[in-house]
Amino acid sequence: MNTVKQVKIGDKEYPELLKYISNPPKIIYYMGNIQIASMPSIAVVGARKATSYGKWAAFEFAKKLSQYGIVVVSGMAYGIDSFAHKGAVENNGKTIAVLGCGIDICYPAQNKGLRERILKEDGLIMSEYEPGTPPLPFRFPLRNRIISGISIGTIVIEAGISSGSLITAEYAAEQGRNIYTLPGNINSMCSLGTNKLIKDGAIPLITLDDIIDELGIARSADIDLTGINLGKDEKEVYEHILHAGETTIDLICRSIGKLPSEVNAIITILEMKGLLHTAMGKVFVAN
Amino acid sequence: MYSQIISGSLYGLISEQVIVETDLSPGLPAFNVVGLPDTTVKESKERIRAAIVNSGYKFPAKRIIINLSPASTRKEGTHFDLPIALGVMAAVGYIAKEKVSEFAFLGELSLDGRVNRIDGALPLVIGLRNQGIEKIILPMDNAEEAAAIVDVKLYPVCHLNEITAFFENRMKISPFKKRRSDTKKKNLINLDFRDVAGHENVKRALQISAAASHNLLMIGPPGSGKTMMAKRMPGILPDLTYNEKLEITKIYSIAGKLTPDCPIIEERPFRSPHHTISGPALVGGGASPKPGEVSLAHFGVLFLDELPEFNRNILEMLRQPIEDERVDINRNKGSVSYPAKFMLLASMNPCPCGYYGDSTHECTCSHIQIRNYLSKISGPLIDRFDMHIEIMPVKYRDLEYMKLLEPENSELGCLSEKAVNSLYKDSATMKSEIELARQIQLERYKSENISYNSQLSPSHIKKYCTLDKETKKMLEDAFTRLSLSARAYYKIIKMGRTIADLEGAERIKVMHIAEAIQYRNLDKMYRGL
Q1: Chain B residues with CB-CB distance to A263 below 8 A
Q2: Could you report the predicted ipTM of this complex, rounded to two decimals?
Q3: A248 and B391: CB-CB below 8 Å?
Q4: What's the mean pLDDT when you consider all of chain B?
Q5: Residue in A90, A148, A102, A145 with CA at minimum distance from that of residue A127
Q6: B169: left (phi over 0), alpha (psi -120 to 50) or beta
Q7: Which residues of B touch A191 (CB under 8 A)?
Q8: Domains of chain A, start order
Q9: Domains of chain B, with CATH numbers?
């Protein structure tokens, strides 16, 4: 079983980048592998209440980053944070969870399984608070400076206009780190904050590979979509969805003049091929 | 001075013959009823005394003992008024005893001697007929209802005096003939699916669920049209058969839900109880158990709007009736069993505020709230829904766009005829397709104890739902790729069978299963919440 260890600011193992922020924590309590806190890492943060688009993006970006050996940092909250961690461990990647409470407390309790998984993948769970410190609202914005502080850049996936993720972005800016954001529909409540960040100068990520390009890592060979074998009907539906971005089955039926029975079946096939993603009555492109 | 009158008594839906014995003996005037009468029967003494006197007869000043035989079973209901009154009158000699012996009597009395309608007339008449009784005197108001049984002579009466006049041959009462009511059969269902703009996917799902009585759960934000769609369900369900009508009418008769306007239930029931409903009202109950909403929805639809608002304990009560297709109600007075073979249709919001996942409103619920909301519906209950679909609100600009697609504007040629027909499919077309599919199922399962695909057990599935290699492979892949739960497996196959039946296809093909998977949204909807 993992025991709670601690590292002080002068120690050799103290996270490298964290030393340079304006108010670094004096002591860090942690479980797992502290070494990875000094490895190149990217923070993936966002709203707790996210859309399925946001959850999908968090998962995929984290997966992509860990594929290239980059550590994913997040706060293990509901929503985007959880999906970022899940995406990283999906590829057996390393990930760091920075908590706003004592690290012996599993908050939210539902993430118990995720917490174990993170440690299993040689990840790290850390906090500046002593074990036993309860999770209180004021501590979360404070820990956000650590999330951005140990990372070379921060991706804000989805954030409403008053989301805590914007605080993380603010810290990242103060600390001189890069801020990347995921653009969203301008009528989506969950993308108001991120779109505003783009307006203020954050770097928009318009494909999954953008983050890899931005970090200057050589990309592995692209997945060739044309290689996937699609029937005529499947292609027609897929192309429509590619065009529409986010749509519903009713709209697909109307646009290409097919029956709901046919469209439903085709959607399942495309979903199984990993090209689509359905949730809450909507259909999205997955890649 | 002794007389015997035939009547009946109800135990749930089962009716048994009761002999009302009357004995008048000299002594202090008294009027006692024995043979386990309940309050309604005990009270009848007062009505009977007044009715006899007000009909112009003298009430005997004797010791009157009424025995309801067999004396060991409980008797209840106001329909004993008439047989007891007739027993007294026959014992006194106002009516010839030998004449009444071939009749059975049912009816409640007013103080002035009028004969009022009773509850449970149809099951009582069926029970008496099964005991070999051919002539029944009953209230005029119940005649239409009881006339559903053709091989028994019904003599409807309005007043006690008519009966005495009839037995004294002063008046003729001819056996009741059912009015030709087909012409006045009003179409209660005037809600048509054609009037629904958009939602073709939901229409399709409802059609599948109606074709094989699959239980269906609709999830969507407020105003997305869940209730509107549900209300159109009765219009696409197949017509009732004679036996089904009879069984439903029996239940409604006992529940006292038949009215003079509607003596026979002609349409499939559509019951939508409010979410404040109590347990006994839902599954049936009371000191003398009456049928609840599940039984009133027999052969029809039970629609639970805003499912999570229902009391959780009450929802759990639904589990056993859904499995067994009947409810057993046990009370200290005895146990009764009512049939409850219904299709469960339910709707819910995705979260307490209703806007989780909606693109136009922000959801104001916390995660805890959403989880609590969902946890009101237990896993075992969710398991009983074969299909879950999500409904998105139709946007105004879509409504505008759809005007262009109406068949009248077909010259604009935006869409193929097939697609326009699907968009504006009316209830009549849907119904005829459903009837065909149900016919196929009835034919296939005629040697089994079931009628619809939704009732298939795993062993039935092995027998009737063979999947070819390709389909099997696809289903396996779907499970791993889309992380479906194991419980979804049989439901998807059953739905696939129904989709194939709607198409008239003998074998379940890949496309049928692929479509069915789309109707299992809940399995992935809240994943990772």
Answers
A1: 201
A2: 0.73
A3: no
A4: 87
A5: A102
A6: left
A7: none
A8: 5-214 (3.40.50.450), 225-285 (1.10.10.10)
A9: 2-167 (3.30.230.10), 201-394+425-446 (3.40.50.300)
